[in-house]
Design brief:
heterodimer, A: about 160 residues, mainly alpha, 8 helices, B: about 350 residues, alpha/beta, Peroxisomal Thiolase, Chain A, domain 1, six-stranded mixed beta sheet, 11 helices, about 35% helix
């Protein structure tokens, strides 16, 4: 990196700092609180359903699967009805981090590109938001799997 | 005098203007100034892109009608928008069948097209030109950001793309308004002042090094200030000579930054407070969840063609410097580690009493 680039970078940093004085800050405390309440309620409700299912004789593993499918379907329905974006705006990470966020990312893109046709529109664009998450998630799980295996062999 | 500023000796006249906006914009503080407000952001069309194109076409046709002209009498159409390959403008031009020059200046397109219309009509190459620009929230959102139904939070500095379009008809011929066809609007304008283009300044691309695409106002502020100062030195005027200096879409953050830089350049605080306004801060009701104001070509296009033009016409403003500001980023440039460069083009309009 030559001196000119360094100078530019320094100036950019200084400008960014200067602009911060005029930029409104996100309301972190409120956002965290909302995410905690909505996300927490969602997970508590899911846990309650799962417990009820296990009590009625469903195996623990299957009960978990049913609940996951239930949340995905609910998020998809709310996205289709045009309500999820308002909920997401309010609750932020509270509904994005659970699997509901993933369902929303798939369905919202599918709706958005419906006009470009079912194959190249919906099919081609459906994963534009969720795709990067999938790739990174699967890659990370593979890496962790290898580490796990190495520890298992050596330990 | 520097070469960046064009002085128009023949003072081409803006003979009519028209603006159209969507629902949210139509509920904002500017609502009484717009010519057309649609309750339905689809404008009755099947896709958002068609809706934007239709909205633009409506304003162009309305402006031509208000000028008392037909499409055949228009020599050139200068238009641009934010979409890839300026889709809205090209498809609008397909429908109206007027010789078309497509422009891209990001959100600075309105003054870019107005400046070029001024050059063409002042130079006598065209008698009548139409300059226009548009943007639509739903088309910009899907191209630059996330799907509409995606649930996410935006930081408070993020501006909202305006659903709106504006068109102006510029004539190089000294017109006598009384000869125009007497329809309802013409009766009104006959009493109004002539609005003429007196000068324009082309902008340089400035890159202050902002990376966050939610801070476009700050990315464009230095370009806007540079343009204002260049225009003042190019025309030999001072801040005092203007009734209003109006920027396109700096938003609340960008406007505050630009005002501060102007203050450092020696403009007094009262002058800035009194005369320096921004379309992005005018168009929405802040309480409606638009904390940082509007952006997009349609923001300056609709406010210039609606509010500013009419204020000049009724003589409440005498001389105005309008500058649309643009953030010259592409859909891929942020991913390649590029910062966001800004640009601004300025056009000076004057109100002339009918003598």
């Amino acid at each position: 990196m030559n001196d000119n680039d360094k100078k530019k970078k320094r100036e950019a940093k200084a400008y960014e700092k200067y602009v911060k004085n005029f930029t409104p800050k996100p309301h972190y405390t409120m956002n965290i609180l909302k995410a905690f309440i909505v996300g927490g309620s969602l997970c508590t409700a899911a846990m309650y359903v799962q417990n009820v299912l296990t009590e009625t004789g469903v195996s623990k593993e299957m009960a978990g699967n049913y609940v996951t499918v239930g949340i995905v379907m609910l998020a998809q329905l709310l996205t289709g009805l045009g309500l999820f974006d308002s909920i997401g705006k309010f609750a932020g990470a509270g509904v994005i981090v659970p699997i509901s966020g993933f369902a929303n990312a798939m369905v919202s893109t599918a709706i958005e590109y419906k006009k470009e046709g079912p194959v190249l529109g919906v099919g081609g664009k459906m994963f534009t938001v969720a795709g990067p998450v999938l790739v990174c998630g699967i890659s990370a799980s593979a890496v962790i799997g290898i580490i796990y295996w190495v520890i298992g062999v050596t330990g | 005098m520097n070469k960046r500023t064009f002085i128009f000796k023949n003072r081409p006249e803006v003979i009519s203007a028209s603006s159209a906006v969507g629902k949210k914009e139509g509920q904002g503080p500017m609502k009484s100034w717009f010519d057309m407000i649609s309750d339905d952001d689809t404008f009755g069309q099947k896709t958002w892109e068609k809706a934007e194109s239709y909205m633009l076409k409506t304003t162009v046709e309305d402006a031509i009608k208000k000028a008392g002209k037909t499409k055949d009498e228009i020599d050139i159409l200068l238009s641009g928008d934010l979409l890839n390959q300026i889709m809205s403008s090209s498809f609008m031009a397909r429908d109206v069948q007027i010789p078309f020059i497509g422009l891209y200046g990001a959100c600075s397109t309105m003054t870019e097209s107005l400046m070029l219309a001024g050059v063409l009509t002042d130079g006598g190459y065209c008698d009548t030109a139409v300059s226009c620009a548009s943007s639509h929230f739903c088309t910009a959102e899907r191209q630059f950001r996330l799907p509409l139904e995606h649930g996410h939070q935006k930081p408070p500095s993020a501006q909202s793309t305006v659903t709106g379009a504006g068109a102006m008809v510029i004539s190089g011929i000294k017109s006598n308004k009384c000869n125009n066809k007497p329809d309802a609007f013409q009766v009104k304008t006959r009493e109004g002042n002539r609005v003429v283009i007196t000068a324009a300044t082309a902008g340089k691309v400035f890159d202050p090094g902002i990376r966050d695409s939610n801070e476009m106002g700050a990315a464009m502020a230095p370009a806007a200030v540079d343009l204002i100062l260049a225009h003042l030195s190019g025309t030999g005027r001072t801040f005092d000579d203007y009734d209003m200096i109006v920027t396109g879409d700096l938003g609340f953050t960008g406007k505050a930054v630009a005002a501060d830089i102007l203050g450092q350049a020696g403009v007094t605080k009262e002058q800035i407070e009194k005369k320096f306004v921004d379309c992005g801060t005018l168009i929405y009701d802040k309480a409606d969840g638009f904390e940082s104001g509007g952006s997009g070509c349609g923001c300056s296009a609709s406010v210039f063609s609606g509010y500013v033009y009419k204020m000049l016409q009724n003589g409440r403003l005498k001389r105005v410097l309008m500058l649309s500001t643009g953030a010259m980023l592409s859909t891929i440039s942020p991913f390649q580690g590029e910062t966001i460069p800004g640009i601004a083009h300025g056009v000076e309009l004057e109100s002339e009493g009918d003598l």
